[in-house]
Amino acid sequence: MKTLIVANWKMNPQTAKEAKKLFDAVKKGAKNKNTDIVICPPFVYLPLLKGLPLGAQNIFWEEKGAFTGEICAAQLKDLKIKYVIIGHSERRKYFGETNEQINKKIKKALDRDINPIFCIGETLEENRAEKKSEVLERQITEGLHGVSKFEIQNSKLVIAYEPVWAIGTGQNCSVDETLKSMLLIRKIISNMYNRELADDMKMLYGGSVNSKNSAEYIKGGGVSGLLVGGASLDAQEFISIIKSI
Ligand code: PGA
């Protein structure tokens, strides 16, 4: 199975010119036949970037109509977008996204053959209070509520484990702790569906990934890939991550 490396550019860069420059540099340097690469830029740059698979950073669950500021599945499909990040902790934190809303977004994406990159992860407080298992279980069971085994098997739904305390802090989660979380997530998925589906599911780690720590996760973290934020904004650094795999 190929390793999946997803770049989450978040609300960067500031201009289309910079976005194209970054994208072209990555496209040129990021050749590794062992990896699949997906770039998730802000919506406004999606139509401008060609030559690598693209993902969106959000989706709305309604079909169309009067929802100012939202982007629907049909609009993403029209641009041939293959992936969408759903439930990122920044959306949960700053925009109050709930597990129920995330569930609706996942269902809509699956319905339209857009692969969700479903983000989960506990906060520092939850981690310290030893509530990680409880939090992950709730995020997964509520996020995938009503999603059938068949729908998951027919999609490339990816789960991204991103402990909130590791995002953008430089404090990446240890490989051991990541491995434990991956086993826990697979167990939750196995209980919800079955063992085979849990074993086959792609799972990413995200949170302060850089070219120095990337290979360790693939080697010993039980992950099928990485979700990279800050380090994906520097073409050389991102290329080094890809080459480290
Ligand atoms: P980071 O972000 O790599 O900058 O920690 C990861 C993410 O938020 O997806």
Automatic annotation (TrEMBL):
PROSITE patterns: TIM_1, TIM_2. It catalyses: D-glyceraldehyde 3-phosphate = dihydroxyacetone phosphate. The active site is at H88 (electrophile), E162 (proton acceptor). GO terms for molecular function: triose-phosphate isomerase activity. GO terms for biological process: gluconeogenesis; glyceraldehyde-3-phosphate biosynthetic process; glycerol catabolic process; glycolytic process. Its EC number is 5.3.1.1. The keyword Membrane does not apply. Keywords: Cytoplasm, Gluconeogenesis, Glycolysis, Isomerase. The keyword Manganese does not apply. GO terms for cellular component: cytosol. Pathway: Carbohydrate degradation; glycolysis; D-glyceraldehyde 3-phosphate from glycerone phosphate: step 1/1; Carbohydrate biosynthesis; gluconeogenesis. It is found in: Cytoplasm. Substrate binds at N8, W9, K10, G168, S208, G229, G230. Coiled coil: none annotated. InterPro entries: Aldolase_TIM (IPR013785), TIM_sf (IPR035990), TrioseP_Isoase_bac/euk (IPR022896), Triosephosphate_isomerase (IPR000652), Triosephosphate_isomerase_AS (IPR020861). Homodimer. Belongs to the triosephosphate isomerase family. Involved in the gluconeogenesis. Catalyzes stereospecifically the conversion of dihydroxyacetone phosphate (DHAP) to D-glyceraldehyde-3-phosphate (G3P). This is Triosephosphate isomerase. It comes from Candidatus Staskawiczbacteria bacterium RIFCSPLOWO2_01_FULL_38_12b.
